[in-house]
Amino acid sequence: MLKSEARTAYLEKRARITLKQQAIWDDLLLIQVQQLPLPPLHAVFSYAAIERRKEISTDAILSYLEFRNPGMQVAYPVYDAPTSLMKAVWVDDNTLFGVNEFGISEPLEGPVAEPAELDLVFVPLLCFDERGYRVGYGKGVYDRYLKEVRQEALLVGLSYFEPVPQIADTDKFDVPLNYCITPQRIYEF
């Protein structure tokens, strides 16, 4: 399957998910995350789900990880449209978020988290393949950022759907995941 085909197909599949299905699948994803063999975490980079696109929210997962890792810091992406680059910004309970021009919620201010500080990155995706490659929205923003993250950091995707056999048009700029978690199972790559 080509990335463009996957994008179209999985945006359509997501659009058909009911709120009831989404709630059940979110609970099952949390249960799967609780089975993941994670080291102690000090710094996690997440994302704010785009609800209208039925992206998977990481809120409950982050609450669980914060409970298991007291003092864990969380960062969220801030996208710079003119450069097509992203940075991670540390957040806390007082951080204000705003919606950018693409409808993505992001912190309005905060200290920048260096990629080398991160222990785990939740990587948004539309679908993934059996080798751990993912299809996003097509701008390459995450892949550019992930090349800067330290090699020991875990790259984790969350998906409502099982993998496709292979994304045929991956290239040297694509960064594979370490894990992808679905409501049914954990995939390790």
From TrEMBL:
Which NCBIfam families does the annotation name? MTHFS_bact
Any one GO BP annotation for this protein = tetrahydrofolate interconversion
- Necessary cofactors: Mg(2+)
Question: EC number(s) on record?
Answer: 6.3.3.2
Annotated ATP binding lies at: 3-7, 134-142
Any one Gene Ontology MF annotation carried by this entry is: metal ion binding
Name the InterPro entries on file.
Answer: FTHF_cligase (IPR002698), FTHF_cligase-like_sf (IPR024185), NagB/RpiA_transferase-like (IPR037171)
Catalytic reaction list: (6S)-5-formyl-5,6,7,8-tetrahydrofolate + ATP = (6R)-5,10-methenyltetrahydrofolate + ADP + phosphate
Q: Which Pfam families match?
A: 5-FTHF_cyc-lig
Binding-site residues, substrate? 55
Q: Which family does it belong to?
A: Belongs to the 5-formyltetrahydrofolate cyclo-ligase family.
Q: What species was this sequence derived from? A: Niabella drilacis (strain DSM 25811 / CCM 8410 / CCUG 62505 / LMG 26954 / E90)
Q: Which residues form the signal peptide?
A: none
Name of the protein in its database record = 5-formyltetrahydrofolate cyclo-ligase
Keywords (A to Z) from UniProt: ATP-binding, Ligase, Magnesium, Metal-binding, Nucleotide-binding
